[in-house]
Specification:
This protein is mainly beta. The protein is built from 1 helix and 19 strands. The radius of gyration is 26 Å and the shape is elongated. The chain starts with a helix and ends with a strand.
């Protein structure tokens, strides 16, 4: 009878005990092994702090640029914006994974829709939906460059109320028949700059659309005026497009 009771107990015991995860960091992190990679290359990423509350490590979904690019099939997940899935260590919530980036086309095993362009990109890591009972988290990686860097989109416009003597930055502007030339103290050759114009009412006009310009060795940026109509008065702003300080106001000047 004792054997029978023992056997019955064995058949009703859980298949395994849940692993208690002890994170090595108080908050979830992600770290990139490189900040410059080739198109379609492998990118090693590591992280800490990805523990499930009661059952080992979290299951992590990875998206490209907040889900802007999707896989061409559902082989990774039904949600095709999930580019990769990583399982964190059950004991301490760490992970180490190699992510194969899109190949820059809309075909092949690592093609994407739309195609993945060269330039600055980020990864978004999420937990909470792929493993029952997991903690909902979202972590953005540092930016990295695929191929030759170029800023992708125009930055958020500068409001007229934020323009002060303190952040003018020594910028000067000269208008000729063919171009509006800004001189930006401290700008190096090749720095990316977004030039915008605010009219007298403070409305951002975006006369050059999403076009980014490059500074010369003298810190000058020339915005062509062909097909562009500027207001009689207002302000011209210069924002950085460099990867380290994207969107930062480098300075401004009264519109000449």
């Amino acid at each position: 009878l004792a054997l029978a009771a023992g056997a019955a107990a064995a058949t009703t015991a859980p298949a395994h005990a849940a692993t208690v995860c002890k994170p090595t960091s108080s908050t979830p992190t992600v770290k990139l092994a490189k900040t410059k990679v080739a198109m379609g290359a492998n990118l090693k990423i590591t992280g800490t702090g990805w523990c499930h509350p009661t059952d080992g490590g979290s299951t992590i979904a990875i998206k490209l640029d907040d889900g802007a690019y999707s896989r061409l099939d559902s082989s990774v997940n039904a949600n095709r914006t999930v580019w990769a899935i990583v399982q964190a260590n059950a004991k301490n919530g760490t992970f180490s994974a190699v992510l194969t980036l899109p190949n820059g086309t809309t075909t092949g095993a690592n093609g994407s829709t739309p195609f993945y362009p060269a330039g600055s990109h980020t990864l978004r890591l999420l937990s909470g939906s792929l493993k029952t009972g997991d903690t909902i988290r979202t972590v953005l990686s540092d930016s990295f460059t695929v191929g030759a860097y170029k800023p992708k989109a125009a930055p958020s416009p500068v409001s007229s109320g934020s323009l002060t003597t303190a952040n003018r930055g020594g910028v000067t502007a000269v208008r000729s028949a063919s171009k509006l030339t800004l001189t930006i103290p401290g700008a190096a050759k090749g720095d990316w700059v977004y030039v915008d114009v605010l009219n007298a009412s403070g409305t951002s006009l975006h006369p050059w659309g999403t076009t980014w310009l490059k500074a010369s060795a003298a810190g000058k940026v020339a915005a062509p005026l062909a097909g562009v109509t500027l207001p009689a008065s207002g302000s011209v702003t210069a924002q950085s497009g460099n990867q380290a300080d994207y969107g930062t106001l480098r300075g401004w000047a009264p519109l000449p």
